[in-house]
Automatic annotation (TrEMBL):
This is Secreted protein. Keywords: Signal. It comes from the Bacteria. Residues 1-22 form the signal peptide. It comes from Luteimonas fraxinea.
Length: 260
């Protein structure tokens, strides 16, 4: 005589294949999200990135004339683009932690070490509403940013311009840039941080000057000619200062601080 289990399966087969699963192993839980946790969290991760968009400020001077300014833009294709004091931080988001409201932003540099910066949303304890942004650099330095305002169309144009400039203008660490190798400008830019910073700032402005103004190329050529004619550090320092004053008085060159 057939066992009871054999008889039961035979009865199920007779009633239809729709109930055949009762005779075999259990199927996986149908309630499990087939997308998996990573894909399921993707929209929330984008929401976190998008919430950081705007102009942010440290609110305190770091030894310069003004506080440090961040311009953060979010794009559906490409993610975050970040400018710090007008300079593009070329990088991408490599991780988003929704539980801790943090994201890891990996910065890549052509002339220098890459590093991962952590941005964290911290709720304002006093009001219980709104939040500030805490930036932690790879070596442990931190900045606390307060929200200033939303991005304007002009801000977005400046971000696009800076990104394009950065594609053709290496970071300042590239020792003197276009200066002749034997020139005083190249020597000082490669050996003294003061002149490296002056040269980087001026070269960035020259690229924008050439791109935005009809007389930009002619003016840029005159600047380079005067700088490379200097034979002493004092002459070079004065030339940088004079041209910076001239630019401030005659051109509207990009600096996110101008738009606050």
């Amino acid at each position: 005589m057939a066992s009871s289990s054999t008889w039961w399966c035979g009865l199920v087969l007779a009633l239809g294949v729709g109930a055949l699963s009762a005779c075999g192993p259990s199927s996986p839980d149908s309630d499990v999200d087939s997308m998996g946790p990573d894909l399921a969290e993707a929209p929330q991760a984008q929401d976190l990135e998008r919430s950081l968009e705007g102009i942010w400020s440290t609110g305190v001077s770091g030894g310069h004339d003004a506080e440090t300014i961040y311009a953060i833009e979010w794009q559906s294709v490409g993610g975050l683009r970040i400018l710090r004091d007008g300079s593009w931080l070329a990088g991408t988001v490599e991780d988003v932690d929704l539980d801790n409201q943090t994201l890891a932003f990996h910065i890549t540099r052509e002339n220098g070490p890459d590093e991962t910066v952590t941005l964290r949303k911290v709720q304002d304890a006093a009001s219980g509403e709104g939040f500030h942004l805490r930036v932690t650099w790879a070596q442990g330095q931190t900045e606390t940013l307060g929200f200033v305002r939303r991005l304007t169309d002009r801000d977005r144009q400046e971000i696009v311009l800076e990104v394009r400039q950065s594609a053709v203008l290496p970071e300042a660490v590239a020792c003197g840039g276009d200066a002749p190798a034997s020139s005083l400008r190249a020597t000082l830019a490669c050996s003294q941080s003061e002149f490296a910073e002056l040269d980087r700032g001026l070269r960035t402005q020259l690229v924008e000057l050439s791109a935005r103004y009809p007389d930009g190329d002619r003016t840029a050529a005159a600047v380079v000619q005067q700088l490379d004619a200097c034979k002493t550090p004092e002459c070079l320092r004065d030339a940088y200062a004079q041209w910076q004053t001239y630019f401030d008085e005659n051109y509207d060159l990009g600096d996110v601080l101008d738009y606050l």
